[in-house]
Specification:
Largest sheet: 6 strands, mixed
Strand order of the largest sheet: 4-3-5-13-8-14
CATH superfamily of the largest domain: Periplasmic binding protein-like II
Distance between the termini: 36 Å
Helix content: 40-55%
Number of domains: 2
Structural class: alpha+beta
Number of helices: 18
Number of strands: 15
CATH architecture of the largest domain: 3-Layer(aba) Sandwich
Strand content: 5-15%
């Protein structure tokens, strides 16, 4: 079946005359493995389909890495191009717009944008033009196993600085506990460490200045120092055995099985750790805590500076009116509140988070409400070419396969060639 609209001819005989009509299929391509989130999305699609005769909205899943690898090719063909697709915004979205793959929906979605947080809406604009609609914000943080912390004699509230964090890693190892799990086989999970360290060392303007070429660009002292701190962590061998070939889903299962004390990940881990665990049950939510990424002594970054995605739906070029209509339908306040109440996500619709009851999601929502600066994922912000390099070097530095200086130079080389 084509990802494009399906034109199905049907004839009704009436007084010797034929009538024809076209059914429309809207495919929404996504990467979510959060069962609560996907269940709600399927409900929204069913609600829409029930009220729109002749239109079928269907959500289709692609695994994260497959999505990133296949989407560029899919967008080039009308036969494979989804009408709506998942996006983390940033430089990758901008590159997609530059290539002519996105639709200008500025006028079409103005009414739903007015109900959303302005910062989220702005993330889906390119040169002032709206190309998509956000639905959630998220935060990357350390999720920790309370029982393993207790076994090692650790208190999360005592971990405030990078030195405190390294001390906790050592203490966990001494107790025979794997301190950290990471799906470094997919590279991007490790870039969260490098990104946060750049933020904590250089502060709010570090990435903007690097992109502008100031102080050596990505070869600046900030990026080199962040690399040194990441290597300092890697030298402690804090990760699970085989972490360089572990997938993201496998690492979520490791955390869910209670085989590692911490996982630096986005909020989707809460929906993944149980289904990917050996038992399928994972850790009880009451055994999971959240720890903000620590500050670096002498650094310009604040503990309240957050890293995370602003996720939404992009509208592909030539998408039918029904696709845009569905985005508006999807973005209703009632569905945002259902998502918040179910712990499916942290919606960008104003006021929706007031109904959050899940304590872990409430903690994340409170963090985002109090953030002093929210930074999109580096690999998305910097675009596909530079983003791929920053993911690669993050793993190489942590593993001791590349020096911090060489890593910074590699990022700058990629930026120069982009």
């Amino acid at each position: 079946m084509s990802f494009r609209s399906l034109a199905l001819a049907s004839f009704a005989i009436a007084f010797g005359a034929g009538a024809t009509w076209a059914d429309t299929t809207v495919t929404v391509l996504h990467v979510s493995e959060n069962k609560a989130q996907v269940a709600l999305w399927n409900k929204i699609a069913a609600d829409y389909n029930a009220g729109h005769k002749g239109v079928t909205v269907q959500f289709k899943y692609l695994e994260n890495e497959a999505f990133k690898a296949k989407l560029p090719t899919m967008l080039q063909s009308s036969e494979s191009r989804p009408e709506l697709f998942y996006s983390w915004a940033g430089g990758v979205m901008q590159a997609q717009d530059k290539a002519g793959f996105l639709k200008d929906v500025t006028t079409d979605v103005a009414s739903v944008e007015s109900t959303m947080l302005p910062s989220a809406v702005d993330a889906f604009k390119v040169d002032g033009k709206v190309v998509g609609v956000p639905f959630e914000m998220g935060e990357v943080a350390f999720y920790y196993n309370k029982k393993l912390f207790e076994k090692a004699g650790l208190k999360a509230e005592d971990i405030k600085t990078w030195d405190d964090f390294l001390g906790a890693v050592k203490k966990l190892k001494a107790a025979g506990i794997v301190p950290l799990d990471v799906g470094a086989g997919e590279k991007w999970p490790m870039h969260f460490y490098y990104s946060y360290l750049v933020m904590r060392v250089g502060g709010e303007h570090a990435l903007v200045d690097a992109k502008a070429g100031k102080d050596g660009g990505f070869k600046s002292a900030t990026f080199v120092e962040a690399g040194k701190l990441l290597r300092e962590l890697g030298a402690l061998e804090p990760f699970q055995a085989g972490y360089l070939s572990t997938s993201h889903a496998q690492s979520a299962g490791i955390f869910g099985d209670g085989k590692a004390a911490m996982d630096l990940m986005g909020q989707w881990l809460l929906g993944m750790q149980a289904p990917f665990s050996t038992s399928g049950k994972g850790l009880p939510e009451e055994d999971i805590g959240i720890l903000s990424f620590p500050v670096v002594a002498g650094g310009k970054g604040k503990a309240t500076d957050t890293l995370g995605g602003i996720n939404g739906w992009l509208v592909s070029k030539n998408a039918p009116a029904e696709a845009v209509d569905f985005v508006n339908f999807f973005s209703q306040e009632k569905y945002a509140k259902e998502a918040a109440a179910a712990g499916a996500d942290i919606p960008v619709v104003k006021g929706a988070n007031a109904v959050i009851t899940n304590p872990l999601f409430k903690r994340l929502a409170d963090d985002l409400a109090a953030t002093t600066w929210h930074q999109n994922f580096f690999d998305q912000d910097l675009g596909p070419s530079v983003g791929r390099v920053i993911n690669d070097v993050s793993v190489s530095v942590a593993a001791g396969e590349m020096t911090p200086e060489a890593a910074a130079a590699a990022i700058q080389d990629a930026a120069d060639q982009q």
